[in-house]
Amino acid sequence: MTPTLLGRWQTRLFLLATVGALITLPFHLGIIGPIIPPDHIPPYFPILGYVALFGMLWDILYIYMQQFRWDRDWPGAFQLFAGIWEAVFLICIVKFLGLPGAPGEIVLIYWFTIHYSLVWLGVYLVSQSIMRILFPRWRFHGGRLL
Question: What digits encode the pLDDT tens for the residues 45-69?
Fold first, then answer.
C-alpha cells in the first residue's frame, strides 16, 4: 500500500484514538506509571494528543520523502525509524521548550518512553495486521478509511 497524505492522517488519528487511547488509559488512571499527586493532571493523554498533532506534521515530510523512493512506498523499517525519531523529537520539545499539560521533569521521561513505546508498538502492530483484515478497502485506497 502506498499511503496518501489524507490516508496517513486518517490512519494515524484513528489508531491513536482507539489503540493509543486504550493503551494510555491504564497510565492515566495510575494503574501503570508513577504516582501523580491528586492536584496534577496525568500527562499521558496530552502527550498522546501531541503525538497525533506533531505526527500529522511529520506525515507531510514523510509523503515528500516517499516521492524519492523508486516504489513510492514506506517500508516497515522506515516506520520503526520514524517512531524513534518522533519520540526523540517529542522528548526534546517537552524537556527544553515545554508543552501545556506535559511536564518536562526527568523522572517522567522514563515513563514517557515506556508509554510512547507501548503506544507506538500497539499502533504499529494493529496497522500491520488487524487493519488489513478489518478494513480491506483501507489497503487499496491509500490508507483512507473514509
Answer: 999 999 999 999 999 998 888 888 7
pTM here is 0.86
Enumerate the domain spans of the chain.
Answer: 5-140
CA distances from 70 to 66, 73, 74 (A): 9, 8, 11
Q: What are the CB-based long-range contacts (under 8 Å, 24+) for 71-79?
A: 71/2, 72/2, 73/1, 73/2, 74/2, 74/3, 76/128, 79/124
d(CA 48, CA 137): 27
Residue 37 is placed in which grid cell?
A: 499527586
State how far the Cα of 103 lies from the Cα of 74, in Å rounded to an integer.
33
- Residue 144, pLDDT > 80, answer no
Our measurement of the distance from residue 138's CA atom to the centroid of its chain's CA atoms, rounded to an integer in Å, reads 19
